[in-house]
Every structure is written in structure tokens, then in C-alpha cells.
Amino acid sequence: MDRQENNSDDWTPPAWRKFLSHDSGPFAQFVKYGVIGVMATCVQTGIFYALAATCLKCLTADDWAVRLLGLPSVVFTGEEAWYASRGMLAAAATAVGFLFANVFCWLMNRWFVFRPGKFKWYVELGMFFGASTLATVIALGLMKFLIDQFNMMTTLAVVVEIVVSFLVNFVARKFFIFKGYPKTKKETNMKRLLIVMACAACAGLVSAQDAPKAPAVPEPAPFAPADAAAKQPNRFPRSRRERPYGLRGRSVEARPWGKLADGTEVKIYRLQGAGGLILDVSDYGGRLVRCYAPDKFGNLADVTLGWNTPGEYEKLGFSMGTLIGRYGNRIADGKFTLDGKEYQLPINEDKKTEATQRHCNLHGGPEGWDKKVWKAMPMASRGPVQGIIFTYVSADGEMGFPGKVSCRVTYKVMPNNVWTVEYYATTDKPTVLNLTHHSYWNLAGESSGNVLGQELQIFADQYMQTTPGLIPTKSVPVKDTGFDFTSPRPIGAKADLMKADKSLACTDNWYDHNFVLRGENGKLKQAVFMRDPVSGRTMEIWTTEPCMQMYGAQNMTDAVPAKAAGKHLCQFAGVALETQHAPDSPNRPDFPSTVLRPGETFRSRTEYRFGTGK
């Protein structure tokens, strides 16, 4: 039996079907200009976008669905990762296919389909719309060359998209446009052939994909303490104050962290970078609680020392991971004179032995800014950058310092694994100000042992000698001393020189000294390069500050707990690298000034750039 043409006089559709047919009734123009195809494409686009966003954002290496399907973990790097993780690149490719579908449907329907002839059965089989879907797949393939992030999860989304597009087309045409037309055996066999070809094409797409370059990344430690997480495992910001302001995007996650001894509740916030860097920070002292950085294999490790609860920070000290103010480092005897008036600050370091004679105000006093709960406001999400703003107002006379100081500190995690810290402050009276951050670094991972074998380079040709009370006296060259870090070397490489120098007995013959950095004060310059030779992790510190204090954690012991369950820290467990002005600057007019006056704005910037290799 020869195939009957769709315009054959042998078949006449019923009257009610004419109302919905392609050549008569109120729907004719919609069908003619491809509106049905456009509607199908819209459905396809929405389903594909939702699937891509779910697959690329939610599934992790530990997810049951990934293990069940045998799919690799999704690891994104580069500035495009933020968009890829939300399926936006896939959605953009689908939009290109959407345009192809519009043009293709319009041309085919206007010039071929709705003229009498043999093309109508192709439309019924969805072949024209299948061609537009193929254009979408081609666009996705082009994305593979633009960014090296096309993986099997994306392929899974593409396969589902193809299936959905054919189904939507087939249903729309079979039950809406062409229902009732006669069929032939040839046409039925062609349908079957097309289904087989479509399945083969899908299988080929899956088998042809490259595996992601980066290996599976372990899930970071719990975001909140175990007890808090158990009570509120899925708790996300609810109040307006906790939500980011401005543009839409990934939110900075905030969760309760615990209570201080006085009952004050504090929170912890997670900042996630597109390159893999993850920071957990708290409004309690602006502390850096965790810092996950990838190694040369893509594996994450927490590279900063600290603890899991705010109570431990209150009890154990060490200025662990905190913002320091109003004055970082030491002021001799807790005294300074400003504009002819002498100010007496509380003494919170008073240690007198044969080796040391410490009597000073340290890090702003016993109730410095590290003990304060700062106001936290997550920044508006701007593409791949996440950030949070901490603000604090220090009252006139707080800890003996003059002037009401309003301070703002901004943390940002950039897509290239850079953590930036920006300081701003103003005052209503002349005062002194020296702000810094007191994190301890171990690039092999906290609780992994000491850092003596990790390489360190400090971009400074001079360091400051001190009195037995650790108050600077003068700057001297680092050459031929244990303080020479002008080229990368293991931190413990010159331990013999340090032990032989009797003048260093006040610091237990180790590092607690200020280095004078190269470069102009106020200009961003490199201060530090640090590398762990085993993991390959590197960290560069860039700053606008003139100096940097290095403290080698020689006073830590194995009695100090670590964050990892059942583990402890040890002597030299990390190294603190504090960008700042020189200690005791208010009493040393020959040092760069730390005086801040009304109408002036204190500005400082430090960047922590994490990487691998080199």
C-alpha cells in the first residue's frame, strides 16, 4: 500500500477536529508560526535548567546519587565556575537552541509543512524539532571548548533534555495537531528506526565525555558543632538581617555557633570561593575558624589553627584567628603621649623572669576587639565573589584609648582562591590605631604536626631587634642571621643560629619579631611566600602595611586541643604572620605613624593568595 499523502481526499477529519487543526480554526496561525514548537522548547528549557542546576550545584562526591550512578564529583575552578555551578552556562546553551528552534520551526512550518506534500509526517515524528534540539547539543559542545567543565553530569542533563524534547514534540503533534491522519507501515518502521538512532546517539554522548580533571574532593568538616547541627541540621538564614542585600546569587550561609560565658550568642558564616577555597568566620572577634584550601591533587584541608567552639577561644587564648584592635602588638609600659597628653592603658602582659621583662599593653588590652562580638552583614552576592562586612564601634576611653572609633572590616573570597581583608576606620578624637589579623597557618593541615619543614620567604631585608620585654629598639639587616628569609627555606632550617643567639632568650630563642617589609607604605606589595612541599599548597600574603610580625608558636604544647577529634596541637604547630605597623609606634616618632585624627580614614588591605606548585 502506497503511503497516503496528508492532503488526500480519502480522509476527512471530523468537524470538531477541524477546530483544532493546522489549516483551520483559531489555532491555525499559532501552529503555522511554530508557537507549539516554541512552547515545547520553553518546557524543555525549564526542565533542562532545573536539572542542570540540581546536578551541578547539589551533587557532591559523598552524595548517594553520585555513588549510585557511578558519576565523578563535580569540581569547578576559574571565574566561570560560579555560573556553571548554577547551570547558567547550560541554560545559556539551551537558549541558543531555543533561538534555533524558533527559526527552524517557523521556516519549516511556513515553507514546507503546511503546504500539501510529504513533509507533514516528518513533523509528526518530531524530526524538525529534533534538529533544533540537536542545535542545542551542538551549542553545549561548543561550551566544552570555551570552558573545560563539560562532564558526565552535564551529559546526563543533555540526554534527559533530548528525551523530553522528543516526548513533548511527539505528544504535541500526535495528540494536538495531526491526530487522525492515516499511518503506513513504512512510517511506523521509520519511527522505530529514529528511536533506535536517538538512543544510540545518547549512548555515544555519554561514552564520549572526558572525566573531570580534578579528583573527588572530601566534604569539609561540619559547618557547625555537632550538637548544634543535630538540633538544626538544615537551618539557614531566616531573618531579613541575615540575608544578603542587593543582587541575587549564592547566599553567605549563617548558622548559630554557640554562646559565650556571659550568654551572648555568636554565629558562624561560610564563604565559599569558586576555586575551592572555603572560609568559616565568626562574628566573635571576626575570627577565622576554618580555612579549607585545595592541594595539588584538589584535596581540601583546613590550613588554619583553631577550635570548634567559642568557649574554647575564650578559655585557651593565643589570639587565635582573630581581628586585633585597637592596637595590635605591644605598647611599652602601656603608656603613650599624644598631642601633649599622656594616656595609660591596662597592662595585660606582665611577665618578668631572668630571660624576659615584659610589661606592656598587648593587642589592645585584656578586653580588646578580639573579645568583642562584631555586627556581621553578608555582602550582596556579586557573581563569583562572596563576602561579609564586620563593623564595630569602640567607645571613647575603651581600654584607655582616646576617641570613638568606628571600624569596618570586609572579608572577601575571590574566585581565584584569594581571601582579602580590608580595614576602614574613623575617629572623632585623635587616637592611635594598628589593626591586624592573628591567624596561625599550617599548609599541611591543622593538627598535622609542626611547620618546621614548610618553606617560608619574607620580603624584608631588615628585622627589629628588641629589649628583653620584646619592645623594638632598632632595625638591623637579616643577612647572616636566623631571621634571613629573603629566599624560600624551611622555617626550622636555622634553628641552630636561633638557639645560639643569647639575646633571643626572651622569645625562647625563636620567632616573635617584626620584619620591615620592602616597598612603599600604603602600596600593595608581597610580604610572604609559604609552601608545604608535601601537599604543594602555597600561600602568598600581600599587604599595604609597612611591617609584619612573625610568631612561631613556640609556646604551644600538646596539651592544646586541635579541631580534629582526638588530636592535639604541638610546639611550632603553626606560624602567625601579622601584617601591621611596628610595635610601640606611638612612642617612636621615627617609626611610621599610627596616629588617626578626625576627618581622616584609616585604610589597610591584606590579601592571602592560596595556590599550588611553584
Write the layout of secondary structure elements.
Elements: H1 15-18, H2 28-32, H3 35-58, H4 64-69, H5 81-84, H6 88-113, H7 120-124, H8 127-146, H9 152-177, H10 185-208, H11 226-231, E1 253-259, E2 265-272, E3 278-282, E4 288-294, E5 300-302, H12 310-316, E6 322-324, E7 330-332, E8 335-338, E9 341-344, E10 349-352, E11 357-362, E12 375-378, E13 386-394, E14 405-413, E15 418-427, E16 431-432, E17 436-438, E18 440-441, E19 455-458, E20 460-466, E21 472-477, E22 489-490, H13 495-500, E23 512-517, E24 525-531, E25 537-543, E26 547-551, E27 575-580, E28 595-596, E29 602-612
Antiparallel strand pairs: 1-2, 2-3, 3-4, 4-5, 6-17, 7-11, 8-9, 10-11, 12-13, 13-14, 14-15, 15-29, 16-28, 18-27, 19-22, 19-24, 20-21, 20-23, 23-26, 24-25, 25-29, 26-27
Low-pLDDT regions: 1-9, 56-86, 144-153, 180-187, 203-219, 224-249
Count of individual helical segments = 13
CA-based gyration radius: 33 Å
The first-level CATH class of the largest domain is given as: Mainly Beta
Percent in helix: 25-40%
Structural class: alpha+beta
The overall pLDDT, averaged over residues, is 76
CATH second-level architecture of the largest domain:
Distorted Sandwich
Strand order of the largest sheet: 12-13-14-15-29-25-24-19-22
Our estimate of the beta-strand percent is 25-35%
Number of strands: 29
User: How many discrete structural domains?
Assistant: 2
Shape: elongated
**CATH fold-level topology of the largest domain:** Beta-galactosidase, Chain A, domain 5
How does the major sheet shape up? 9 strands, antiparallel
Q: How far apart are the termini?
A: 75 Å
